[in-house]
Inverse folding.
């Protein structure tokens, strides 16, 4: 049976005292354990940041909630779009480069609760990170069982750049929407998949990867399977598949068109804004030039770590494809990797762009599932040490854009 269209198995249930069926303890314990482990990892990371911030006389709240891109998002939440910074010729940083979902949600939270925009951004990111961890676990558990799902969440929580999941950034929101959209595709819930993909497209520029996964998988189901006469093993309606695929790119396309109209060039206006930031897609030419500089001249630790992380992502993507992962996961991850490697500008931010690409970690999670428990625990401890130390360094010491 195709993994991309298989129905969800009936949830394990047990009878309560009143004779009614309820989810089994094992069904409830799996996601609770995974999300709890994720929360423990990220809370430990924030404690490390707070301690080092105190020792170096820095404000931990400002570092977490009002640094780099967070300032742009909270500015949009507070005042709307319209801020532009002019630097040397050709460098014009406009807030139109930032997609509207996250600042809109920040504004809503700050309106409802008696907190500032920075605190609202942190609260929103932390809640989204928890929802993302649950979705990541759900995909791992569906494909390979509870143990793999838990390892998948732990690996995602302990990546070197996972400190970003504790900041007022958009990656947690995008990952949550992406994980649950992909889960909906895997379980044949096409309307949910398309709706969540549309929201992901409003969260970040690379949220288009979710729409690509939904649309390509829908095309595969409609064209390839029906052409061969086999049809999907699951009898879902054709109109739902088409509707999900039609919904998926609407969020991303709507904002790109809005910026284009606002700039007087509907099709190219948004990409002109990105060029002003130095962000273009040049098929990796800029990345290769920077790698050549690193290998020849050396540079800061952050750049060297970025090179290692991006190279590791390419290897993991090859393993994901070799393991014959479900089509939507391969398409989603492939688009994220392509955008990251093929884009120029802000080389040090590439690991952050890869954070939503959690399916890259599936081969490692599977390997840890099959390994001896002591070996798996050793890997988790080593990753925890690296993640906590490097993440704290990034936020408190490196003073570079994340």
């Amino acid at each position: 049976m195709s993994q991309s269209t298989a129905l969800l198995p009936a949830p394990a249930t047990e009878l309560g005292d009143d004779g009614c069926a309820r989810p089994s303890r094992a069904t409830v314990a799996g996601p609770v354990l995974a999300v709890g482990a994720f929360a423990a990892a990220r809370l430990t990371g924030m404690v490390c940041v707070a301690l080092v911030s105190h020792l170096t006389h820095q404000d931990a709240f400002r570092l977490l909630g009002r640094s780099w891109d967070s300032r742009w998002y909270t500015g949009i939440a507070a005042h709307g779009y319209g801020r532009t910074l002019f630097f040397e010729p050709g460098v014009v940083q406009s807030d139109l480069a930032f997609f509207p979902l996250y600042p809109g949600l920040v504004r809503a939270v700050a309106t409802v609760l008696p907190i500032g925009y920075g605190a609202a951004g942190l609260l929103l990111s932390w809640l989204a990170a928890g929802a993302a961890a649950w979705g990541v676990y759900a995909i791992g558990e569906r494909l390979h069982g509870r143990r793999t799902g838990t390892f998948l969440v732990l690996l995602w929580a302990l990546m070197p750049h996972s400190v970003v999941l504790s900041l007022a950034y958009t990656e947690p929101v995008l990952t949550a929407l992406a994980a649950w959209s992909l889960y909906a595709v895997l379980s044949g819930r096409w309307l949910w998949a398309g709706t969540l993909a549309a929201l992901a497209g409003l969260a970040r520029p690379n949220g288009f990867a979710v729409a690509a996964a939904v649309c390509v998988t829908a095309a595969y189901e409609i064209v390839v399977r029906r052409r061969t006469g086999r049809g999907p093993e699951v009898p879902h309606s054709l109109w739902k598949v088409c509707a999900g695929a039609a919904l998926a790119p609407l969020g991303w396309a709507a904002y790109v068109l809005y910026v284009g109209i606002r700039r007087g060039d509907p099709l190219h206006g948004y990409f002109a804004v990105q060029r002003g930031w130095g962000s273009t897609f040049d098929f990796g030419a800029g990345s290769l030039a920077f790698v050549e500089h690193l290998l020849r001249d050396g540079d800061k630790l952050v750049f060297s770590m970025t090179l290692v992380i991006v190279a590791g992502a390419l290897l993991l993507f090859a393993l994901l494809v070799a393991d014959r992962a479900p089509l939507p996961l391969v398409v989603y991850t492939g688009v994220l990797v392509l955008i990251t490697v093929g884009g120029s500008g802000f080389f040090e931010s590439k690991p952050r762009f890869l954070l939503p690409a959690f399916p890259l970690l599936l081969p490692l999670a599977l390997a840890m599932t099959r390994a001896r428990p002591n070996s798996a625990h050793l890997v988790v401890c080593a990753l925890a040490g690296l993640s906590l130390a490097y993440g704290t360094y990034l936020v408190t010491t490196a003073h570079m854009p994340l």
Summary: The longest strand covers residues 13-15. The two ends are 42 Å apart (CA to CA).
